[in-house]
């Protein structure tokens, strides 16, 4: 794991139905880098992310991920559980049994990192989709996560909010040395990452320079149309 935030070796996973989701997948994300995971619907992107987060158990292979891990769902309503912004970020710290002053400082720092300090007392229901995603990310920062896994976090956002969120995550990765893996199918988001992986039918078929993968996917889209 030296200098690597995420290491996957020969990973395989099948659903109870027997359908293969991930086949002999191996990849590495260097510590402190922002990588993206690309592929069409059904290629296994979300399944791979859930395996990395420990939400699913692989049938074969090895996973090494720096701890603790933060996971941001496509729909933030699936993970925001408290009535206000500050309370939700603090909720993730309950298990650590920290003094109240430390919790307050961590919440303030995390919300500052995603530019939401002014909204600490705002009810969750009154937030925009982009603000909700930033609260979910703040929860991971408050827990001092080494690795951030994001499953199409811009899927429900308007175009301006999409690129604003990608840029925010890139800044966090670079300023805090977090390792991030971001699932997307939006080619313009590739402009913000250090590298990318391409999955097809559960197999890793390409990886590396974002611009090259972007060109490859644009050609595939043109052939399909």
From TrEMBL:
Task: State the SUPFAM superfamilies in the record.
Answer: P-loop containing nucleoside triphosphate hydrolases
Look up the domain of life of the source.
Bacteria
Does ATP-binding show up as a keyword for this record?
Answer: yes
Identify the residues that the record assigns to the ABC transporter domain, covering every copy: 6-224
- Which keywords, in A-to-Z order, does the entry hold? ATP-binding, Nucleotide-binding, Transport
Name any one Pfam family assigned in the record. Answer: ABC_tran
What are this entry's molecular-function GO terms? ATP binding
Database matches in PANTHER family:
ABC TRANSPORTER I FAMILY MEMBER 10, SULFATE_THIOSULFATE IMPORT ATP-BINDING PROTEIN CYSA
Name under which the protein is recorded = Energy-coupling factor ABC transporter ATP-binding protein
What is the source species? Answer: Anabaena azotica FACHB-119
Q: What is the lineage of its organism?
A: Bacteria, Bacillati, Cyanobacteriota, Cyanophyceae, Nostocales
């Amino acid at each position: 794991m030296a200098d690597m935030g995420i290491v996957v070796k020969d990973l395989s996973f099948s659903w109870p139905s027997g359908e293969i989701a991930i086949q002999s997948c191996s990849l590495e994300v260097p510590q402190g880098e922002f990588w993206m995971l690309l592929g069409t619907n059904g290629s296994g992107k979300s399944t791979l992310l859930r395996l990395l987060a420990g939400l699913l158990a692989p049938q074969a292979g090895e996973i090494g991920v720096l701890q603790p891990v933060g996971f941001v769902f496509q729909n933030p309503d699936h993970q925001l559980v408290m009535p206000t912004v500050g309370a939700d970020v603090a909720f993730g710290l309950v298990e650590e049994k920290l003094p109240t002053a430390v919790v307050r400082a961590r919440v303030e720092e995390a919300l500052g990192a995603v530019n939401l300090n002014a909204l600490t007392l705002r009810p969750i229901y009154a937030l925009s989709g982009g603000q909700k995603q930033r609260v979910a990310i703040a929860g991971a920062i408050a827990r001092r996560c080494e690795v951030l896994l994001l499953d199409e976090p811009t899927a429900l956002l308007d175009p301006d909010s999409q690129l604003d969120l990608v840029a925010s995550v890139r800044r966090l990765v670079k300023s805090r040395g977090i390792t991030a893996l971001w699932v997307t199918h939006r080619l313009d988001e590739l402009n913000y990452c250090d590298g990318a992986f391409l999955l097809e039918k559960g197999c890793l078929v390409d990886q590396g320079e974002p611009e090259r993968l972007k060109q490859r996917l644009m050609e595939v889209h043109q052939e399909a149309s």
